[in-house]
Design goal:
Belongs to the EndA/NucM nuclease family. The chain is of the alpha+beta class. It has 8 helices and 14 strands. A hairpin with a 5-residue loop joins β10 and β11. α4 crosses α5. It is globular.
């Protein structure tokens, strides 16, 4: 297959029905770069209440209403978006520390490791970067940075991997979540870098470069931008952001306004075909009319498909797209490159 290289603007992604209080982001209009980041840091710190280190908010913020829809714990290290989960945890109950096998109990994953900030508060109890995850896999990830794995030494039951980095510029051990949740992790990292920008130069972490503006060292900055672009904001993230705002009083600005990421960390990045799913294909491609035909395994299980343009705007949402065939009628899209996302699958296509 011919490989196409193209440039993507990392911009406005996802669903836009977040319950953002009127005026919450006042003062951000026309700001970019450091000025925008400084303003957002002020905004997301304002009203933030340290609720202590506990299990309470997971009951409202982390239930599975999106995949099996069984109200069990939504754990990004065990959730299988394409089928039955390998195990489930009920809420409340099931909490523990690290254990010897998957599926025994869950605990609290600090996506930014506690050792980074010496277990200080409010970082330790900021639930915007705290996720409930399987105890075994949490321990497996340990303090390793997130990254893209070459050869996996360990693989969780949902496909999350630990192993050596395949990223140019970092050769250490990294942990890679499944594609469905990579954007979630990226937007958490951009939140943390903004919320704690006045302290971040004192935090010791392989993913950081020691600065308050850029924050992330390469290749991690480019990786996070790519993850953000390829896995747009989901309803799960929006609902979690609302639940955490109700609980601790502040919001993740990059779930509410994903376009802020491009305005602060850069607007373009290169992405090639290898970055997209090999299990989803579109024909004809390039598209010369208003109909595309999508092929892939068991597409009927996906209740929704979304089409994004290259500034990340959701230009079309299709409910139950594959119940009566595999064709999708496009809404007279202008010429350009687009991304089709359904479930945990995504691919790109060109409209001519």
């Amino acid at each position: 297959m011919k490989r196409y290289i193209f440039t993507i603007c990392v911009g406005l992604f996802g669903i836009t029905n977040a319950q953002i209080p009127t005026g919450y982001y006042d003062g951000t209009d026309n700001l970019t770069g450091t000025a925008l980041k400084n303003k957002l840091s002020e905004i997301v710190a304002r009203g933030h209440k340290d609720m202590g280190y506990n299990w309470t908010v997971f009951s409202s913020a982390d239930r599975d209403k999106y995949y099996e829809k069984d109200n069990t714990l939504l754990d990004i290290y065990s959730e299988n978006p394409a089928g039955p989960d390998p195990y489930n945890y009920n809420i409340p109950g099931g909490q523990c520390g690290n254990v010897g096998a998957e599926g025994k109990c869950y605990n609290r994953e600090h996506t930014i490791p506690q050792s980074t900030f010496n277990e200080k508060y409010p970082m330790r109890s900021d639930y915007h970067h705290l996720l409930p995850t399987d105890g075994k896999v949490n321990g497996l990830r340990g303090n390793f940075p997130y990254g893209e794995v070459g050869n996996a030494s360990e693989t969780s039951k949902n496909g999350s991997k630990l192993g050596n980095s395949k990223m140019n510029g970092y050769s250490g051990t990294v942990f890679e979540p499944i594609d469905e949740f990579k954007g979630d992790i990226a937007r958490i990292y951009f939140y943390f870098a903004t919320r704690y920008q006045s302290q971040i130069t004192s935090f010791n972490y392989a993913m950081y470069d020691g600065s308050t503006d850029k924050v992330f060292a390469e290749p991690f900055r480019s990786m996070l931008l790519k993850w953000h672009q390829q896995d747009p904001v989901s309803q799960k993230e929006i609902d979690r952001n609302n639940a955490l705002a109700a609980y601790q009083g502040n919001r993740n600005a990059f779930v509410d306004h994903p376009e802020f990421i491009a305005k602060i960390w850069g607007s373009v990045m290169a992405v090639d075909d290898a970055s997209f799913s090999k299990n989803l294909k579109i024909a004809p491609n390039p598209v010369k009319g208003n109909v595309i035909y999508v092929t892939g395994d068991n597409l009927k299980k996906f209740p929704k498909a979304m089409i994004y343009n290259l500034v990340g705007q959701n230009v079309q949402t299709i409910e139950n797209p594959f119940q009566n065939g595999n064709s999708i009628k496009l809404n007279n899209l202008p010429k350009g490159i687009y991304i089709l996302k359904t479930g945990d699958l995504n691919t790109k296509f060109v409209v001519e």
